[in-house]
Structures are given as C-alpha cells and as structure tokens.
Design goal:
The chain is of the alpha/beta class. It has a domain at about 80-105 and about 210-385: Rossmann fold (3-Layer(aba) Sandwich), CATH 3.40.50.1100. The chain is about 40% helix and about 15% strand. It contains 14 helices and 13 strands. The radius of gyration is 21 Å and the shape is globular. Bound molecules: zinc ion. Zinc ion binds near residues 9, 11, 14 and 25.
Amino acid sequence: MPEPKSLRCPTCGREFPPWSVDYFCPDCGFPAGNLEVLYPYVQVGLGFPRAEAFSLWRYEALLPVGEEHAVPLRAGGTPLYPWPKAARKLGLGGVWIKDDTLQPTASCKDRGTALAVAVARKLGRKALSCASTGNAASSLAGFCAAGGIPCYIFVPKAAPAPKIAQLMAFGAHVFRVDGTYDQAFSLALAASQEFGWYNRSDGLNPMVVEGNKTVSFEIWEGLGEVPEAVVVAVGDGAVIAGVCKGFLELRAAGLASRVPRVFGVQAAGAAAVAHAFGRYQRGEPILPAEEPADTLADSIRVGKPADVVKAVKYVAETAGGYVTVSDEELLSAARDLASQAGVFAEPAGAAPYAALLRLVKEGILGREDRVVLIITGSGLKDPQGVTQGLPEPPLIRPDLEAVRKAVEKCA
Ligand SMILES: [Zn+2]
C-alpha cells in the first residue's frame, strides 16, 4: 500500500502531512503554492513489478494511492514507436514517438485523471469537477462515468465540438463558460469550494502531476534507459511538470543514473510558461505569469498557466528549455506526423515534432541525441484544426474508368 511522505510547497518549501491539504500551500496561495507530492524514494528498491495488464498502476510504489481505489478504465501502457526515418533525416541518434493518444478518452490527460479519481474515492469525495480546454474535461467525464461518480465540467465557449460531444456522451454536467479558459478555471475553483467538489483541474490538483509522471516511467522502461531528450507540448504546465518529475524520481529512487533534458513547446501566441522560464533563467520572478493567449491549438491556448512554477523549476532541473512555434509550424508538424509516421495528432499534440525541427536547426540537439516526442492528443479531437489547408478528396463516378483517371492524378 503506497503512501506519500509529504506534500511540499514548491515556493516556500513548507511541508504538510499527506492528505491534510487538497491543493495549495495556505501561505503562498494559488498558483505559487500548488503542492508537490514527495515519497520515501529509497523504499522503491529494485524497481517495478512486471504486470500482465499494462497500466500505470504497476508503478504504485511511486504513486499516492493504489489500484484498489481506481475505476476500471485503463490509463497508461501506451506504445513507444521508433521513427528511424526522422532520425536519419534530422541526423539524430534516434527518434521515438510516445503515442499517449491511445488511452480511454484519446489524450494524455487520462493519466492524471486516473489518479485524481482514485484519490477522490480514497478520500470519500462524492463528486468531481474541473475546468479544461477540452481534453482534461472529457477525460474526467469518462472516468467519472466508469466510476458512477457525478462530475461538473467548466469549458470555455471556444472548446471544439468533438470534445463537447465526448462530455455529453459521458453524461457529465457541462457548463460552457462565456469567457476564456482562464475564466473557466477560476470559476471551477470557486464553485468547487462552494459545493465541496474534488477539483481535478490541471495545475491545481497535485495528484494530476502524479499520474502524468508515469509517462516517463514508461519511456524509461520502453527504451531500457533514459533518452537524451524528451519533448512535450505545454499549456498550463501540469503535463511537463509530470514528465520532469517522473525522470527526477527515477533518479531519486536510484533506478536511473541521470535525467534527460526535457523541452517544452508552446505556441508563439500562447507562451506564458516559455516567457516565465526566460525570466527564471535571468534570475527574475516566475510569477505573475499572465498574458493573452491566441493559437489554433486549443489544448495549449492558456494565458494564465496554473502549474507554471513546477513547469519552470523542474525543466531547469533537467537542463532542458522551452521552444515556441508558429501555428503554421504546428499544422505542418501535424500533417508530417500523420503522413510520415501514421500518428494522427491534434495540432497541440504534434507540437513536439515542430519543436524538434527547431532544436535540431539551432544545434541544441544533434547526432549523439536520442529523442522522445510525447504526442498528447488525438487528431480526432480537433479534425477541423488538423485538416486546415488540406485538399478535398475528388468525387468520382462509380465506375472503373473514373478510378483510372483519378489514379493518373495521384502523385
Ligand atoms: Zn508556501
């Protein structure tokens, strides 16, 4: 039965007993005091048991709760594909795609949700809530449906229709907020406190990072060692905080001797975390981190990132960094990933490939480096976004002659 050692404030360092506080340090408040979960790392010993059903629960030695509290949906255990063509083209030691879209609700958010829902059940909470640009919401709605738990979802009015469709099908109570994601986030927090819901929002709930970190355990196990670099898209910072924490914990537990450089990628029009990282590197304060957010990649359209403190400090600890890319680069990366690797990602999900092209061009990564791209959200989540600029398929008569003519036009 796993048990965390304590909860720690990443800003003032104050520690709290496990389960004594839900979200943030009362002295530092939100978002500076969003808590991190610590474990007695030395007890992890020889590693994780092999399990027949591959899910994130096999890492329970480094999780705050065990599988007995989980709902039946399987989170984690996603494939790691080699992409040798990209490695050759870019002159890298190796490129792998960690396809985290292959989860119950088709995004990486299922990892954090699995943990938040299990913790809610352990603590006897009767309902959950969250604010989300879409993926975390549909994830929470799915897991709550599986567990028969009511959930209350706050999405910005601009959330794509397929994501809202998932929410409605799962039977969630959905509130479309006539405002931005950041407004939906604040409203969900206030409502959760008012009605006693357990809030799963990214960045706010420390248990989400605990689920997110398992992607790093899987990368390490899949490769048999840690790579030189890992690249992942960043919105509010909870996913990259998890990615970094996973590798840092493998080292703390003595399972890996080093950590990879972790690189975050943001859209140029929504780059609050990247800018905060720049400030931190110059010795300036991380907070406040608040600026306008404008990109077609809705999953990372965040102006007021909730987990910015961890997303900045942990990335610095891995000697990684941040890259910003244009919307055109995001779309082009999504098309390349789909047409050259067979992986259909939403624009935010393809962002790591766009970043990789930059990191190679700028000489930050080179031929000694083995790189893992974490693909966070399926293209089916935002088909209109991904297919922008692609031609319509030809409409043909139902006869072979028409096919013959059409084939001649195929490149
Ligand atoms: Zn504090």
